[in-house]
Task: inverse folding
């Protein structure tokens, strides 16, 4: 089967679509964003400065990041709740912007897919452009800002936040991800762009298939 790449910014439905497609195709699913969140958690736990690129890379290289049965692990322990903390959310864009750090994590992600037979639905922000540029299929999801913010309101990490606050948070994250020097967020030239703003989950899955 090979790799199906699902890219796009936050709150466009990447994870929901990726899980549904993986189930439909009978292949593995990898959320690459969870790797960067686990890497950020490792950095925060270590106490090194998040703007010290050398220290950040050394910390991540000495950490064991893995996804087991769909659950992100750090040094052998599941860290699902921890990687969604406010501290990790606030720091993940800065940590993941380092080119050397991304090279380490990308190698781990490619190795994960290889261990799973070379076939997987892989979601993230640079899958079709960097991690798997030769993916069998590439889909780039997008949605209107207010729609994405309303979706994010259902997440535990957004509890108590107003809609306009979430719109601004998403705008800042989009800007950071799309303007970074290493692996900026953008559709691959050969990706199919799918706007999920006015589609149900069933319609998004049908379009993707």
Result:
């Amino acid at each position: 089967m090979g790799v199906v790449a699902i890219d796009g910014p936050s709150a466009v439905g990447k994870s929901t679509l990726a899980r549904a497609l993986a189930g439909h195709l009978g292949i593995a699913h990898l959320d690459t964003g969870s790797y960067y969140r686990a890497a950020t958690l490792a950095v925060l736990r270590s106490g090194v400065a998040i703007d010290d690129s050398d220290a950040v890379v050394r910390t991540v290289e000495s950490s064991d990041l893995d996804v087991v049965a769909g659950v992100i692990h750090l040094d052998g322990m599941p860290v699902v709740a921890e990687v969604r903390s406010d501290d990790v959310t606030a720091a993940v864009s800065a940590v993941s912007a380092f080119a050397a750090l991304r090279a380490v994590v990308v190698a781990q992600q490619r190795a994960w897919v290889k261990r799973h037979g070379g076939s997987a639905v892989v979601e993230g922000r640079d899958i079709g452009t960097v991690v798997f540029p030769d993916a069998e299929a590439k889909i780039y999801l997008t949605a209107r800002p207010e729609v994405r913010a309303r979706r994010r309101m259902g997440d535990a990490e957004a509890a108590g936040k107003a809609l306009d606050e979430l719109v601004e948070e998403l705008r800042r994250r989009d800007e950071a991800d799309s303007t970074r020097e290493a692996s900026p967020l953008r559709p691959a030239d050969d990706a199919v762009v799918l706007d999920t703003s006015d589609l149900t989950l069933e319609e998004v899955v049908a379009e993707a298939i």
DSSP finds nine helices and eight strands in the chain. The chain has a mean pLDDT of 92. Residues 93 and 172 are 10 Å apart (CA to CA).
